[in-house]
């Protein structure tokens, strides 16, 4: 029961990031730049404490012959976190989570093609369906989300997809994630310097940002890495299909958001396409193993 419980907690944490961000920014309790910086700062502190407890010291964060500081990963983390925050100034919780998830999965599938993988037919069909669903979701119309916010969330998804690809095969994901949060923090402060005129901070906004950074992000990632030890790559990707659904439910419960027909239709097409692609990848892997 340990792995299913850890998996469930991690997925809830991922969905909670969307809910907490929307609660803070949709209610104008804090500005996007400040939310990003406080989220990264609280996440960094939480991860530093967890790293010190798990590894008995913080030496694992220092550069060594077998470990390099990855500044590009830190930059991608910042780009994801900042774009995520600015996107939620205009998106509903479920809409934002679906755009984020679809963009992440599409990025990783397209990267597999670039790196020379030969996809199964189901992967091609699934990728086309997922991309079609994303295009349909943002097509102009009465129910379409704001284009600028949608572009920000797509950028957040692409950044997170690339960040995940760079982290594959990490020998110490906890140390790497902690380092990335610490390195991303001063870069986030630079964004605050440019956005200081629109700064708006309240106790409620700060509390929501701290919960997002320390619990939903910091602790959430640690729990997810623990669950991944007993999950195959395909199964790990498949269970993440539930994140947009959980986020949408959170938006309905905590903010009385309405689930539109367009969102439902796009969710079916995007998540169905990703599920098909994952099924095709699993078949390709079985064929290689059999050979």
Brief rundown of the structure:
Helix content is 77%, strand content 0%.
Characterization of this structure:
With 291 residues, the protein is mostly helical. Helix content is 77%, strand content 0%. The protein is built from 11 helices and no strands. The protein is globular and about 45 Å long. The protein starts with a helix and ends with a helix.
Topology of this protein?
Elements: H1 2-26, H2 32-55, H3 71-87, H4 93-114, H5 121-138, H6 147-166, H7 173-194, H8 203-228, H9 233-239, H10 242-255, H11 261-290
Helix pairs in contact: 1-4, 1-8, 1-10, 2-3, 2-7, 2-8, 3-6, 3-7, 4-5, 4-6, 4-10, 4-11, 5-11, 7-8
Main sheet specs: none
**Secondary-structure element pattern, one letter each:** HHHHHHHHHHH
* Number of helical elements: 11
Report the principal-axis shape. Answer: globular
Helix content: over 70%
Unreliable spans are none
What is the average per-residue confidence, as pLDDT, rounded to a whole number? Answer: 85
The tally of beta strands, per DSSP, is 0
User: How much β-strand is present in the residues?
Assistant: under 5%
Overall radius of gyration: 19 Å
Q: Structural class, judged by helices and strands?
A: mainly alpha
- In whole angstroms, the N-to-C terminal distance is 34 Å
